[in-house]
Automatic annotation (TrEMBL):
GO MF terms, alphabetically ordered: DNA binding
Residues annotated as domain DNA-binding protein Rv2175c wHTH: 10-58
Record carries keyword Phosphoprotein: no
Span of domain Rv2175c C-terminal: 68-120
Name of the protein: DNA-binding protein
Alphabetized UniProt keyword annotations: DNA-binding
Alphabetical list of Pfam families matching this protein: Rv2175c_C (PF18367), Rv2175c_wHTH (PF21531)
InterPro entries: Rv2175c_C (IPR041098), Rv2175c_wHTH (IPR048576)
Recorded superkingdom: Bacteria
Length: 122
């Protein structure tokens, strides 16, 4: 599903998937996705009582991007709410360039981790 309007820290136009879709793509049972959500290694939003996960948290192969849990842990440890974490990850940063969540899929992933760690301790 593509968000028609900004929702819970995600911008309009962002693609989100249900927990069942996420589990299917990752080759996991839905309870494993719930475990990841409950542990804070993934974040979700609710639209009309349905829980959705940003599609960008997954690789093209359907696996959970290996940097996402670490970045979310750093943001949580730094006192960022779920909404603030999503806003940070999905807001363009000209100095990267692009959005931190997109940089997690390329050679700038370690830079995003470094910046997130610096934000968390400041």
């Amino acid at each position: 599903m593509t968000l028609a309007e900004p929702t819970a820290g995600l911008p309009a136009g962002e693609t989100v998937i249900t927990i069942a879709e996420a589990a299917d793509r990752a080759g996991l049972v839905a309870s494993k996705i719930f475990d990841e959500l409950n542990a804070g290694r993934l974040l979700d939003i609710r639209v009309d009582s349905v829980r959705y996960i940003p599609e960008r948290f997954f690789t093209e192969d359907g696996e959970i991007n290996r940097f996402v849990p670490g970045v979310l842990a750093l943001l949580s440890d730094g006192g960022y709410s779920h909404r603030e974490s999503l806003e940070y990850l999905f807001t363009p940063d000209d100095s990267l360039p692009g959005r931190p969540v997109d940089a997690l899929h390329g050679h700038l992933a370690r830079e995003v981790m470094r910046r997130t760690q610096a934000m968390a301790i400041s």
